[in-house]
Specification:
Elements: E1 2-6, H1 10-21, E2 27-32, H2 37-46, H3 49-52, E3 57-62, E4 73-76, H4 92-109, E5 114-117, H5 122-133, E6 140-142, H6 145-160, E7 167-168, E8 171-173, E9 180-182, E10 188-189, E11 192-193, H7 200-211, H8 213-221, H9 227-241, E12 246-255, E13 261-272, E14 275-279, H10 286-303
Parallel strand pairs: 1-2, 1-4, 2-3, 4-5, 5-6
Antiparallel strand pairs: 7-10, 8-9, 10-11, 12-13, 13-14
Helix pairs in contact: 1-2, 1-9, 4-5, 5-10, 6-7, 6-9
Bound molecules: 1,4-dihydronicotinamide adenine dinucleotide and oxaloacetate ion.
GO molecular function, one term: L-malate dehydrogenase (NAD+) activity
Pfam families: Ldh_1_C, Ldh_1_N
Catalytic activity: (S)-malate + NAD(+) = oxaloacetate + NADH + H(+)
Length: about 300
């Protein structure tokens, strides 16, 4: 199985590293516009193989899309990240043009591929990739919910002082500081609702920390995060390539689901070899429905800014 990752920066290279290390694909192509950069990252990752025990071939190329031909999955991480104090939405001016041209270029060589969009503002970039390529909606997947849910589970684990892998939880809605919706009501510690162990105040704090999870890291690091984002993309790619049919919140095109139309936004999906195989209809309560509608309204406003590229 072959995966191409466009953008060999922090997120793209980390994703390639996790995919190789875990043997998720037999070949990974890293592509970047910076001369020699992807080649260097690929070589560095390949030189881990004998000491960590993987056999994945990692190839780096400078803007040569012919080397990406026949990819089963293409991950788009190309574009600029935010700096402290910025929102993801402020990246649209530069990233929209990049995501549009990259998604068109990859399809020339991999017409049957599934595209995973990572570049921010991710929900709007996913919508742009879908509209620009005209691909069927099951083949365009925005990655944000897998990461936000990982952060949610991390903060729950810290608040509960329990192992993170005993905790289940999902974040839906937009991938923005104010648009994501951590589903605290449905989160559990080995099947037991976390509300049995945490006060409303503590749960509210977990939700608030989750929502600004990316901003917190951006402030600490001076640029946005990459370890958990790269691992979250690899987790999603694994579910596609190995047809795991995991339920993962992803930004996908809605046609009536969750009361929304003509928008890409995070909802729980079954992810397998066909990409988005099902949108799972979780019964939300009135408060959650209201938050989802507000989140969708904000994403829709952002999408209006695409009128000059679409
Ligand atoms: N959806 C999510 O959950 C997350 C999204 N992100 C987003 O991912 C994007 C990448 O973040 P980082 O890797 O930290 O940035 P980075 O700056 O480390 O890497 C971006 C790379 O894209 C390359 N690039 C730019 N234009 C290109 C083009 N036309 N073709 C090929 N490559 C091109 C640059 O040369 C650079 O190497 C940002 O937009 C960031 O906001 C980051 C983390 C999580
Ligand atoms: O915070 C950012 O800008 C990058 C991102 O989407 C994340 O880490 O969640």
């Amino acid at each position: 199985m072959k995966v191409t990752i466009v953008g060999a920066g922090n997120v793209g290279a980390t994703c390639a590293d996790v995919i190789a290390y875990r043997g998720i694909a037999s070949e990974v192509v890293l592509l970047d516009i910076k001369e020699g950069f992807a080649e260097g990252k690929a070589l560095d990752i390949m030189q881990c193989a004998s000491n960590t025990g993987f056999n994945t071939r990692v190839v780096g190329v400078t803007n040569d899309y012919s080397k990406t031909a026949g990819s089963d999955v293409v991950v788009i991480t190309s574009g600029i990240p935010r700096k402290p104090g910025m929102t993801r939405e402020e990246l649209i001016g530069i990233n929209a043009g990049i995501v549009k041209s990259v998604s068109e270029s990859v399809l020339q060589y991999s017409p049957n591929t599934i595209i995973v969009v990572v570049s921010n503002p991710m929900d709007t970039m996913t919508y742009l990739a879908l509209k620009a390529t005209g691909l069927p909606k099951n083949r365009i997947i925005g990655m944000g919910g897998a990461l936000d849910s990982a952060r949610f589970k991390t903060y729950l684990s810290l608040a509960l002082d329990k192992p993170v892998n005993d905790i289940k939880g999902m974040v839906i809605g937009g991938h923005g500081d104010t648009t994501m919706i951590p589903l605290t009501r449905l989160a559990s510690y080995n099947g037991v609702p976390v509300s049995q162990f945490l006060t409303d105040e503590a749960l509210g704090q977990v939700a608030a920390d989750t929502m600004v999870g990316g901003a917190t890291l951006t402030k600490l690091l001076g640029t946005s995060a990459w370890y958990a984002p790269g691992a979250s993309v690899a987790y999603l790619v694994d579910s596609i390539l190995n047809d795991q049919k995991k339920m993962i919140p992803c930004s996908v095109f809605l046609e009536g689901e969750y009361g929304q139309d003509d928008i890409c936004i995070g909802v729980p999906c079954i992810i397998g070899k066909n990409g988005v195989e099902q949108i799972v209809d979780v019964e939300l309560n009135d408060g959650e429905k209201e938050l989802f509608a507000k989140s969708a309204a904000a994403v829709r406003t952002m999408n209006e800014a695409l009128s000059n590229v679409l």
